[in-house]
Design goal:
This protein has 431 residues and is of the alpha/beta class. Helix 3 packs parallel to helix 5 (167-177) and helix 7 runs parallel beside helix 11 (389-400). The protein has helices spanning 22-33, 48-59, 94-104, 125-133, 167-177, 195-202, 234-245, 265-272, 317-323, 346-356, 389-400, 421-428; strands at 4-6, 11-16, 36-42, 63-67, 70-76, 88-89, 110-114, 137-141, 145-151, 155-156, 159-161, 180-181, 183-187, 207-210, 213-217, 227-229, 251-258, 276-285, 288-296, 303-305, 331-333, 361-364, 367-370, 382-383, 406-408, 429-430. It has 12 helices and 26 strands. A 5-stranded mixed β-sheet has the order 18-19-17-2-26. Strands 4-5-3-16 form a 4-stranded mixed β-sheet, with helices on one face. It starts with a strand and ends with a strand. Bound molecules: shikimate-3-phosphate. Shikimate-3-phosphate is lined by residues 23, 95, 166-168, 171, 193, 311, 314-315.
């Protein structure tokens, strides 16, 4: 598949179960690799990104067996990984390189790690600063970009006041804290996803949390392999919430989705915009909340997304922006300059492709303003996702509500987080 054609739809109906959560799968795979014994991870993400993490853990000595969505990882214990003669390949995955760097900083060997062209252009200084403060020696291209060479060693605990709200930075420091002498603490300026904290507790590392500060004391810790179920990925489910919200008579049931409160701000945003959502069958697994979401079609109002909400909905902003032309007031995104250093420059990619479909867009350094319904209907177009999975999927959804068919170039890039996305979308979109 290189180009995918998406035809306009009349409604969205039926059921869908999004694949396992990408963020959680990365964390379970890494912790299982440094735990003692075998972990059995069910509903593990099909995402190419998480398979990059599994590849790295394997290269470092963990035993990894993949049977579709069931992944067995036999760990080496905290001190048992070995160096890899080849550079580790993080592929397209920022989470892989940034979180794993925290673990590699505490090893007694040197590791090289790099990724694809997109990843090698993304900023790494944000993790280099705290990890160096803890005692790791790391070199990077232009002191900011992969390839990284991480000379691990004895680490000391620090109290790191994060200058930015990033779960990846917080996680890199906490994971390095597993290998540090004394206490490691991280304070975040705004709340971000807390999957690392929950996963660390689950694998046996005591964590203390007070307000925005998380502490870990490594002395004598051992992690133990375990059975864990990965919830479905809410960030993937959002494409279907958006698709169903496009048509007044849609009814869609999304099954088994992770509803961790540090991820559900996107549901608040949808509700504020007038979406009809209901959460059902709530349960919990390893401290994570899981449930179903029932979506009905509705008239979306639109509105502004800004400030402390941004880090909590960062991965869902492409879909929200692409919904702008279907809303009453349009969508405005502010304070989101971080979008420019994701898998692509998402602000530029959104503005470019929205314009290709005929939308009225104002691009700003830290966001964009997309005009609502009164600016006219979207027309079919050729979409250029710039290799970015979330751009490809956001426009595949917008295409359902366009006047003519839309073609998505390089459509398989969706596989970075959701390899079966187009099939799942085709199953629920009724022409
Ligand atoms: C992630 C954190 C977020 C998010 C990314 C996954 C994680 O990145 O955008 O897709 O798994 O910790 P930042 O921490 O850089 O905001």
């Amino acid at each position: 598949m290189s180009k995918k054609t998406i035809h306009p739809a009349k409604t969205v109906a039926g059921g869908v179960a999004p694949p396992g959560d990408k963020s959680i799968s990365h964390r379970y795979a890494m912790l299982a690799g440094i735990a003692e014994g075998t972990s059995e991870l069910s509903n593990f993400a099909l995402a190419a990104d998480c398979h990059s993490t599994l590849g790295c853990m394997k290269a470092l000595g963990a035993e990894v067996k993949v049977e579709k969505m069931l992944v067995r990882v036999t760990g080496r214990g905290l001190r048992g990984l070995h160096g890899s003669w080849r550079a580790l390949d993080a592929g397209n995955s920022g989470t892989t390189i940034r979180l794993l760097s925290g673990i590699l900083a505490g090893q007694s060997f040197t590791t090289k790690i790099a990724g694809d062209d997109s990843l090698n252009k993304r900023p790494m200084k944000r993790i280099l600063t705290p990890l160096r403060e803890m005692g790791a020696q790391i070199t990077a291209r232009d002191d900011n970009f992969a390839p990284l060479e991480i000379r691990g060693g004895k680490l000391r605990g620090i109290h790191y006041e994060m200058p930015m709200a990033s779960a990846q930075v917080k996680s890199a420091v906490l994971l390095a804290g597993l290998f540090a002498e004394g206490e490691t603490a991280v304070s975040e300026p705004a709340r971000t996803r807390d999957h690392t904290e929950l996963a660390l507790e689950e694998f046996g590392a005591p964590i203390e949390r007070h307000g925005r500060t998380t502490r870990i004391r490594a002395n004598g810790i051992r992690l133990t392999g375990r059975k864990a179920e990965v919830p479905g990925d809410l960030s993937s489910a959002v494409f279907f919430i958006a698709a169903a919200s496009l048509f007044l008579d849609s009814t869609l049931h999304i099954q088994g989705v992770g509803l961790n409160p540090t991820r559900t701000t996107i549901l608040d945003v949808f509700a504020r915009m007038g979406a009809s959502l209901q959460m059902l069958s709530l349960r919990s697994a390893q401290g994570e909340v899981i449930g179903d979401i029932a979506v009905k079609g509705s008239k979306l109002k639109g509105g502004v997304i800004a400030g402390a909400e941004i880090p909590l909905v960062i991965d869902e902003l492409p879909m929200l922006a692409a919904l702008g032309p279907f809303t009453e007031e349009g969508i405005e995104i502010r304070d989101a300059a971080e979008l420019r250093v994701k898998e692509s420059d998402r602000i530029a990619a959104l503005a470019e492709n929205l314009r290709r479909m005929g939308a009225t867009v104002e691009e700003r350094p830290d966001g964009l303003k997309v005009a609502g319904r009164s600016a006219g209907k979207l027309r079919g177009a050729e979409i250029e996702p710039h290799g970015d999975h979330r751009i490809a999927m956001a426009f595949a959804v917008a295409a359902l509500g366009a006047e003519e068919p839309t073609r998505i170039r390089d459509a398989e890039c969706a596989g970075v987080s959701y390899p079966t996305f187009y099939d799942d979308l085709a199953r629920v979109a009724e022409q």
